[in-house]
Amino acid sequence: MQPRPVYIRLLIHLLLAAFLANAANKFFVRDLEYEAEHHFYERIFDFRGDAPDQYRIVPLLPLKVLTTQLSFNYAVLLYNALLGFLAFELFYLLMAGFRETHKYAVAVLFAVLYIFFQYTGWRPDTMGLLVVCAGSMALAQRRFAGPLHELVLVISVALLTFCRADIALVYGLMFAAGYTRSWPVRTLLVLLPIAGQFALQSYIFPEAAYYSQKLMLGDNLRFYYLLRHPATYLILAVGLIWWGAIRSFLRLTFRKYLRVYLLLSGYIFLVLFIGRLNEYRLYLPFLPIFLAMASDTYNYSKHEKGARAV
Which of the four, 66, 91, 125, 127, has the lowest number of CB atoms within 10 Å? Predict the structure, then answer.
């Protein structure tokens, strides 16, 4: 099947972004009104908000600019539409090895499910973080020549540190393990998120106090919130329907991308203690990684089949 013209792809992604943004605003209208009434984001934009949201300032800066011209609800709507469009474009880029129809299937599925990923804790910066993650992954996949490649990795991790330090550490460890052979760069990639989080807490926003519990292990072990989340049952259904394809993907990727599976396991273990397992938006930063993995695996399978046919 021939790829659709570029303008058709852009139109599809614009329509999906408009759907996603409208659905999110309608679904979380009460949260939007609550945040506006209690000035939660207004204080963050003024650099005096609560932790940990104040530490994740980079994805919120475009929203801060939009709120100077629009009411909060409309600013969030436009923010999700614009960044959602960028996310779809980056996903398309990461899925270079996919068939055209599969690329759009992933985009449609993501657009529909996005509001459910946010079900337990609406955060507008989720899309901003996802765009930075997808952009970082796309740039890392380019593998620029010489020192430029290492510079791109370092800048990506530094930027992610001011989005979410835990995700920055995940990407830093992944880049250090598989995208550079320079030990000084590897060390920097791992230390940057740790040093950045320390600077955020101690020097940049020292007055930001945590508004949530720091230890969530007891809540998670009860599985109370996990079982109340509608997406939990959807994920189980998807697992049953496509178990054969999932098992095949795991078999093809597990050894080659063992570091990714270890990082995901470690991250879930961390969420078990300091987050909620049912906050599925927390796992979205792994989506660009798995899209790149799947694309690479799909390309490899095609070449392998072609070689056998010859």
Answer: 66
